[in-house]
Amino acid sequence: MTVQQQADLGQQALRAFERDLPRLWAERPGQWVAYQGERLLGFAAQQHELYHDCFQKGLSRGDFVVFCIEPLEIEICIGPQFVD
Amino acid sequence: MHRSTVRRLIRQSCGCANMPLFIDRLPFHCWTDSTRTPASSQWTIVLPVVLTEPTLLNPPPVVSARDWALDTGNRGEAFAWRHHIIQAGLDPDQDRMPLPLIVRTVAGRLTVPVRYAHLWLVSNVPALRSTPYRMVLHRGLPFHDVPTRPDPQFQRPIVGIRALRAAPLKVQIDFASDTISVWTPDRDLS
User: Fold this and answer.
1) Where are any strands of DSSP class E within chain B?
2) Does domain B48-177 have CATH number 2.40.70.10?
3) A33-54 pLDDT, tens per residue?
């Protein structure tokens, strides 16, 4: 798989996760979920367990993406903030 | 002595029923800022940490532990420079999360990549030193993706407040003795 194909698969997984997040957050908060593109592969309580579940299905690290089931944050703050 | 016995003794000595002492009065890192005239003493609260791939099932060797700055003003989980990832033996261009992160500081905003990784806290208690404590980064490790080598004092990798809460650690910062102590949730590491 090329780097571009992996990136595309990652973006598909992200969109699928964003789509499913409200339901997953209600049903399985704090668990981990894996996607291969748009396909949901499975859940686990621990991130490293989920990786190995996926490896046992014959997948390689670049074939899938894992997310923690919690609200997505796209911004963090380091240090004090000045408020206008 | 069996490790579980050691942990029980440590629990008893600190009076923490479910939180064994993991880092015992580790001194702050004291250094000299020579960019000032005259040079001035500075202190950084550091924790010994091993950065690894997130796939490890067992604790890593602790020989590669580095000092990460404890920063409760960092509202994220952690932050590093590209160099720190390479230094840990990881490829910063592999295993990136599909979503970059915007880092907001007093100096402005910066969009940075995020790599999947775990942190492992290393104990200074001799009986626990070989069994570091996993700190899962739920949102991965955002990093400043520049080729330059970060300043070893001013640009340390950072452990932020979310990682401490998620771990969840008990931390005592003692400014009377310039030391930090850390208790971890009781887990059978034997």
Assistant:
1) 21-27, 29-33, 40-44, 46-52, 66-70, 78-81, 101-105, 108-112, 114-115, 118-121, 133-136, 141-144, 158-159, 170-174, 179-183
2) yes
3) 999 999 999 999 999 999 999 9
